[in-house]
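forwarding from the other thread:

> can someone predict this with S-adenosyl-L-homocysteine?

sure thing
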Amino acid sequence: MAPLFNENKKPTDYKIVRELFKFVYQTKNMKDTLKHKGMRNKLVKLLERKGIADPKVLEAIKTVPRHLFLDSGFEDHAYQDKAFPIGAEQTISQPYTVAFQTELLRIKPNDSILEIGTGSGYQTAILLHLRAKVYTIERQKELFKKTKLFFGKMGYRPKKVIFGDGYKGLPEEAPFDGIIVTAGAPEVPKPLLSQLKIGGRLVIPVGIDEQIMTLYIRKSEKEFEKQELGTFRFVPLLEDKN
Ligand code: SAH
């Protein structure tokens, strides 16, 4: 019979206690309070003044707790309309940019959306809130691992979180109703255009030092309508994984 108390088991016990403390600590820091909700309401008003009009997009910004996508300690920055560093030289996009790009996608529930540049996962969460089926790709291993874990903790359920190179798109899940690129592309990657449904929309910031937000709507197998919608600044879309 196995002994009831086994000295060898002790490290495991410590591990459990440590994990428990970690869990309690993290949960304590993962609160969404009335104060945060108030700050989000203010942010939404600001985005409305800046021209965001889609009520569903505004509702998503009002609901998703952006402060939890930043490392704790940076809470105060979460509801300013600013981009913010998230490690690995990357940034969480500015709320206005997230709202602007999301609005351009015209998401309907169950739309299949490909996101290039998972980053902090905030944009992903906004897409999920709009009830899209989301496939998201990140090329930075560190960020990919961290954000995938975070989605699990928060109960966010993208269809797939992929470590890979977004330049190639995701042929095995194509075609998509929408594709959103959240990093600045020197030029439009051809695979992304070819992975759109007819009627599908690609929202991509194009340029090197600064980017022009560009919307492509696929009109037929071979025709695309192109619209240019103002200047933005993104971290660069880089090739290959890292
Ligand atoms: N949507 C993110 C924005 C993050 S910044 C958010 O809301 O936080 C852009 C992200 O694109 C970075 O994390 C960067 O690592 C990633 N990226 C850059 N080039 C990429 C590529 N070729 N494929 C996939 N991700 C890429």
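Residues 90-93, 116-117, 119-120, 122-123, 137-140, 143, 165-167, 182-183, 235, 237-238 surround S-adenosyl-L-homocysteine (CB under 6 Å). thats all i got for now
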